[in-house]
Design goal:
The structure is a single chain. By secondary structure, the protein is α+β, with helices and mostly antiparallel strands. It contains 14 helices and 13 strands. The N terminus is likely disordered.
């Protein structure tokens, strides 16, 4: 991860509890012998793939997901009712962090310390043969050849050794799952922080560019920022996440080409500037996709994001019949969004006396670049009817749609009237 773009305090993550205890335990218990697990000279499982060299606990700080007492205790609490033997889980220093006997938590276990230091199981076959310890086994828990803890079971070694192997493998699987979830949560937090700073400012020059180029996925540029909004039943854009946002976020996650986060009533996405067509296809017609301009530097990208945020906050101003809206086509909408509410009401009043047919004709005429023929074709209306309506619009509003200056005012009035 790029350290040039640190997490803000508001997005610091919390650990998620590992899940799937039943499935994990049942699957492991059914295994006669864990694949690829090594054995010491006493027949005990080392918990690491054959040929792997164990790393001493001094390198525990390299692990992104060390064994926590909470996870260890959940495993002990889950399996203890099914066993007749005492179960302890120790950290890489040999300190008991979870136990069937709560009074032992926090004490040093010499056998576990030896198992963690050597990476090999410690088997006590007769009570008292080593520092007064009871008969049993202490098997190291490893992740990527690094010892992160030890599982200890008391009882005849020949009986408890297979059980210890099951517990070791169970904890390993849960740790791997937790680490995957932590990595996903961290990526989500980084993306949320990055997009939040782009929208709100507060970043060092060049830091966004470095974060995009060096993060996961890597986006060397040029980039676009996009916002996805929901649609109401009548097709109007609304300030809310799409109903099927889950499908879109699945696409974003699986494709590995986007940085995204949900906030401020929209799904915000950073993408390669040339990847907009694939995103539009994934968004579908049930949502509205706002696309920013292509940018090659932090400053323009922030300006594009801030502009989109203004439009996303006023979805009632956006056209209702378009699924993809580019920033370059929304100048009138942006102008109305930025103007005082009194000015917008004044503009809307200029066309208040127009009929629905006259408004649709005006919108089509302005949308086709003031082409009467194209307006006639688009509305399936005779050319003379279009001309008559335009003349009537000029009479009612005192603004001639064929005059460029008046046409701009009428375009703004149409947008203001949507609100």
């Amino acid at each position: 991860m790029d350290n040039a773009f640190p997490l803000s305090p508001t997005v610091l993550r919390s650990r998620r509890p590992a899940a799937g205890w039943n499935n994990c335990l049942n699957c492991v218990a059914r295994a006669h012998a864990p694949q690829g697990s090594g054995r010491d000279r006493n027949g005990a499982g080392t918990g690491a793939p054959e040929g792997k060299q164990f790393v001493r606990p001094s390198r525990l700080g390299d692990m992104s997901a060390p064994l926590s007492s909470a996870l260890a205790q959940r495993v002990v609490d889950r399996i203890s009712p099914t066993l007749q033997h005492n179960v302890n889980v120790m950290d890489a220093a040999g300190i008991i962090i979870a136990s069937r006997d709560a009074a032992r938590i926090g004490s040093l276990h010499a056998g576990a310390r030896e198992a963690a230091a050597t990476g090999n199981p410690v088997v006590i076959r007769h009570p008292g043969e080593q520092d007064g310890m009871r008969a049993g086994v202490n098997c190291p828990i490893t992740l990527e050849a690094t010892v992160v803890g030890v599982v200890g079971l008391t009882g005849p070694p020949d009986v408890v050794l297979p059980l210890a192997d099951v517990v070791v493998l169970t904890i390993r699987l849960l740790l791997e799952r937790e680490r995957e979830m932590d990595a996903k949560a961290l990526r989500e937090a980084l993306d949320r922080d990055l997009l939040g700073r782009l929208l709100n400012g507060g970043f060092e020059p060049g830091s966004v560019q470095r974060a995009l180029a060096g993060g996961s996925p890597s986006l060397p540029g040029p980039w676009r920022i996009a916002a996805v909004l929901a649609r109401a039943a009548d097709g109007r854009p609304i300030h809310r996440l799409p109903v099927d946002a889950g499908k879109l976020t699945d696409f974003l996650s699986c494709s590995g080409r986007y940085r995204w986060a949900s906030f401020q009533g929209a799904l915000w996405i950073l993408l390669d500037a040339h990847d907009d067509a694939a995103l539009a296809a994934a968004a579908g017609s049930s949502s509205v996709l706002l696309l920013g301009d292509a940018c090659t530097a932090d400053g323009p990208l922030h300006e594009s994001a801030a502009t989109l945020a203004q439009l996303a906050a006023r979805p009632e101003l956006l056209p209702a019949d378009e699924a993809v809206l580019g920033l370059q086509d929304l100048s009138a909408e942006l102008a109305v969004a930025c103007m005082p509410s009194g000015s917008a009401r004044h503009l809307a009043a200029r066309i208040a006396e127009l009929s629905e047919a006259q408004r649709s004709t005006l919108a089509a005429f302005l949308g086709t670049g003031s082409s009467i023929s194209e307006t006639s074709r688009r509305l399936f209306t005779h050319r003379n009817t279009v001309i008559q309506r335009l003349e009537r619009i000029a009479q009612v509003t005192a603004l001639n749609p064929r005059d460029v200056r008046h046409a701009l005012t009428l375009q703004l009035a149409l947008v203001a009237a949507r609100a």
